[in-house]
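Lecture notes, part 5. Sequence design as translation. It can be helpful to think of inverse folding as translation between two languages: the language of shapes and the language of residues. The source text, in structure tokens, appears below.
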């Protein structure tokens, strides 16, 4: 494990904060501490570029301004608004999280990390981000921009870096206050580094690489989701889908969505589960 002293830590903090003061991004979810709105933004930002998220976030919050509005919404309406953002299953997990928050937590997004990660679509990073940005609580976590910052600054000449090493550096450089501002600064600096061609995430040991989309079950499910967003149901004989995929692939994807409780099967028709 790499060792650094307090002088190096302070120098790093000064560098990151100076960049943030000069280049802070104006993002709508940074104008609120509402835990629900932070949850929405974090789910939307998963594997999706910030510029694509901004208009969808604003429209989503206008349509579903509170966790109770989202919990009570029709699934079809949620999918329709999400359409174009990609990874539509995130919309379903977000709605189910809202339902669980209302049913089990009185409509309040929990602060406890162990409870947060029980919500659909919320993993360790998203839970940490909610704690930081909604409640300004200290936490230690990684995402792609943060990884880029720490590899670029502390491991520039190392060909392979583990998340364990990176998390330790995140922990020891964490300031004693203003964690919300600190993580915002890290993310903005990381985004800037990547815009300059310094995406360092290829150096991460055992990094999970997403399987190819074209020809995958995800591709079929994504196409089905678009039909569900428009109609609320889909048939095994849906012409627009059979023009793109074989019946076998279509039915396989539909049955996997039944297993995931996304749709229910009624003869040869599959209906969104509300």
């Amino acid at each position: 494990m790499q060792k650094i002293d307090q002088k190096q830590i302070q120098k790093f903090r000064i560098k990151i904060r100076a960049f943030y003061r000069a280049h802070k991004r104006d993002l709508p979810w940074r104008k609120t501490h509402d835990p629900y709105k932070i949850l929405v933004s974090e789910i939307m930002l998963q594997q999706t570029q910030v510029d694509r998220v901004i208009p969808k976030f604003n429209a989503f919050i206008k349509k579903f301004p509170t966790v109770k509005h989202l919990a009570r919404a029709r699934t079809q309406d949620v999918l329709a608004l999400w359409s174009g953002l990609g990874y539509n299953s995130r919309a379903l997990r977000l709605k189910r999280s809202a339902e669980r928050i209302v049913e089990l937590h009185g409509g309040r997004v929990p602060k406890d990390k162990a409870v947060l990660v029980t919500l659909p679509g919320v993993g360790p990073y998203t839970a940490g981000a909610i704690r930081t940005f909604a409640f300004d609580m200290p936490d230690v976590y990684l995402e792609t921009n943060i990884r880029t910052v720490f590899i670029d600054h502390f491991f520039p000449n190392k060909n392979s870096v583990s998340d364990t090493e990176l998390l330790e550096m995140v922990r020891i450089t964490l300031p004693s206050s203003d964690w919300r501002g600190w993580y915002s600064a890290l993310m903005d600096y990381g985004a800037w580094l990547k815009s300059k061609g310094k995406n360092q995430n290829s150096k991460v040991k055992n990094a999970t690489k997403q399987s190819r989309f074209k020809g995958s079950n995800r591709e079929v499910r994504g196409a089905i989701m678009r039909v569900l967003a428009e109609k609320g149901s889909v048939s095994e004989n849906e012409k627009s889908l059979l023009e793109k995929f074989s019946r076998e692939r279509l039915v396989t994807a539909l049955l996997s969505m039944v297993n995931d409780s996304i749709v229910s099967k009624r003869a040869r028709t599959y209906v969104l589960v509300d």
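The translated text above is only one of many valid answers, since several sequences can fold into similar shapes. The CA atoms of residues 251 and 270 lie 10 Å apart.
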